[in-house]
C-alpha cells in the first residue's frame, strides 16, 4: 500500500506540474502583454517539495537574467496588481470554460496609466468571446474604455445615486419612450420635459453618427454632451450639401427645431407651462423625424447609414435596402 501511495503521489505531482506549466504560460502571456519590454520575464508557478512530496507552490521569475522569488522582492504595487489580474484571468480560462462570464469591479485603482490602457486592450483582444461586466470609478479610464467598447457594441452606462432613488442606472432610450408615451396617454404634463429632451438628444446623436455629420471637436466626455440645437443645425447643413430627397423633408427638421424650445424650457426652472397638446405635437414631430431615418420594415428597423453607400446609384441605404436616399459624398 505504501508503494502504491508513493507512486500515486508522484503521478499526482506530475499531473499538477503539467497543469501548472500551462497555467504559468497563460499568466506570463497576460503579464507581458500589460508590461511590454520590462525586466520581469518568464513568470511561473513552481511546486515546493522533494520528488515524492508536495508541500506547496510559489512564484518565481527572471529579473536581469537571474531567477527571483517571491515576486514582492522587486515588484511594485502596480506590478503585483498586474500579476494578480494575470493570475485571475488565467484562472477564468482554466476553470470557467462553460459560462465564459467575467465580473471585474474597480480592479485598476492601483495601476499606473500605461498598465490601465494595456489591461483594457487585453480584455478586448483576449476575452472577446466572454461576457464581461466591467465597473470603475476612474473617469479617464472609463472614457478610454468607452471608446473601445462602442466599437465592439458593448452596453455602456453610468451608475448614479440620488436621495430619492438610491443607486440606479439611467433609463435606456426604449425605456424613456415607454415613459413618454405612458405619461402622454395619462396627461401627466409636468414630468415629460426631461424625458422628451433626452430621447431627442439620443436620437440626434445616432442620426448624426450614421450620416457622418461633422461637429466641432470637443475633449473626452464633453463630446458626449452635444446639445440638440447644435446637432440639428449641423444635420441641416449636411443634408443641404448631400441629399436632394432629404432636403425636401427639411420642414420636419425645422419643426423639431421650433418644438425643441419647449424641451429647453421644461428642462429648467421657469414658469413656462405647456399644454398637453403642445407636448403631443412635439412628440409626434420627433417620431416623424425618427421614421425619416429608420426603416419602418419590422424585419429591418435599421437606420440609413453612410457606410451602406451604393456607389452605382449614389444612395445611402438601411440594412435591408428598402429605405434609401440620394447622397453626395
Would you give an account of this structure?
With 329 residues, the protein is of the alpha+beta class. It folds into four domains: 1-95, 3-Layer(aba) Sandwich (Rossmann fold), CATH 3.40.50.300; 98-158, no CATH class; 171-293, Up-down Bundle (Four Helix Bundle (Hemerythrin (Met), subunit A)); 300-329, no CATH class. Helices cover 50% and strands 15% of the residues. The protein has helices spanning 2-34, 77-95, 113-126, 139-151, 173-186, 193-210, 228-242, 244-247, 250-266, 276-293; strands spanning 40-48, 56-63, 66-68, 101-105, 131-135, 159-162, 166-169, 305-310, 315-317, 324-326. The longest helix has 33 residues, at 2-34. The termini are far apart. The mean pLDDT is 83.
Q: Roughly what is the average pLDDT, rounded to an integer?
A: 83
For the secondary structure, the number of strands is: 10
The main sheet comes to: 3 strands, antiparallel
Ranges where pLDDT stays below 50 over 5 or more residues in a row are: none
CATH topology of the largest domain, by name, is Four Helix Bundle (Hemerythrin (Met), subunit A)
Give the helix proportion (percent range): 40-55%
Counting helices, strands and paired strands, the structural category is alpha+beta
CATH architecture level-2 label of the largest domain: Up-down Bundle
Tally of separate helices: 10
Briefly, what is this?
By secondary structure, the protein is α+β, with helices and mostly antiparallel strands.
Secondary-structure map:
Elements: H1 2-34, E1 40-48, E2 56-63, E3 66-68, H2 77-95, E4 101-105, H3 113-126, E5 131-135, H4 139-151, E6 159-162, E7 166-169, H5 173-186, H6 193-210, H7 228-242, H8 244-247, H9 250-266, H10 276-293, E8 305-310, E9 315-317, E10 324-326
Parallel strand pairs: 4-5
Antiparallel strand pairs: 1-2, 2-3, 6-7, 8-9, 9-10
Amino acid at each position: 500500500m505504501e508503494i502504491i501511495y508513493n507512486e500515486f503521489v508522484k503521478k499526482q505531482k506530475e499531473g499538477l506540474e503539467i497543469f501548472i506549466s500551462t497555467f504559468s504560460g497563460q499568466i506570463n502571456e497576460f503579464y507581458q502583454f500589460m508590461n511590454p519590454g520590462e525586466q520581469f520575464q518568464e513568470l511561473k508557478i513552481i511546486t515546493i517539495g522533494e520528488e515524492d512530496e508536495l508541500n506547496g507552490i510559489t512564484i518565481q521569475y527572471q529579473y536581469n537574467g537571474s531567477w527571483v522569488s517571491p515576486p514582492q522582492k522587486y515588484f511594485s504595487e502596480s506590478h503585483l496588481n498586474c500579476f494578480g489580474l494575470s493570475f485571475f484571468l488565467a484562472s477564468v480560462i482554466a476553470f470557467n470554460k462553460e459560462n465564459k462570464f467575467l465580473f471585474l469591479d474597480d480592479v485598476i485603482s492601483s495601476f499606473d496609466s500605461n498598465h490601465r490602457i494595456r489591461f483594457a486592450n487585453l480584455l478586448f483582444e483576449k476575452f472577446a468571446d466572454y461576457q464581461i461586466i466591467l465597473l470603475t470609478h476612474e473617469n479617464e479610464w472609463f472614457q478610454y474604455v468607452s471608446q473601445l467598447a462602442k466599437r465592439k457594441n458593448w452596453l455602456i452606462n453610468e451608475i448614479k445615486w440620488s436621495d430619492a432613488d438610491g443607486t440606479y442606472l439611467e433609463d435606456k432610450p426604449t425605456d424613456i419612450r415607454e415613459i413618454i408615451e405612458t405619461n402622454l396617454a395619462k396627461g401627466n404634463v409636468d414630468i415629460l420635459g426631461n424625458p422628451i429632451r433626452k430621447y431627442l438628444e439620443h436620437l440626434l446623436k445616432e442620426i448624426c453618427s450614421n450620416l457622418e455629420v461633422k461637429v466641432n471637436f470637443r475633449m473626452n466626455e464633453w463630446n458626449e454632451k452635444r446639445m440638440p440645437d447644435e446637432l440639428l443645425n449641423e444635420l441641416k447643413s449636411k443634408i443641404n450639401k448631400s441629399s436632394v430627397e432629404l432636403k425636401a423633408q427639411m420642414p420636419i427638421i425645422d419643426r423639431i427645431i421650433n418644438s425643441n424650445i419647449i424641451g429647453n424650457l421644461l428642462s429648467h426652472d421657469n414658469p413656462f407651462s405647456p399644454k398637453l397638446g403642445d407636448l403631443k405635437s412635439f412628440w409626434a414631430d420627433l417620431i416623424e423625424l425618427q421614421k425619416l431615418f429608420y426603416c419602418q420594415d419590422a424585419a429591418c428597423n435599421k437606420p440609413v447609414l453612410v457606410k451602406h453607400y451604393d456607389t452605382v446609384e449614389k444612395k445611402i441605404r438601411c440594412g435591408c435596402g428598402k429605405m434609401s436616399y440620394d447622397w453626395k459624398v
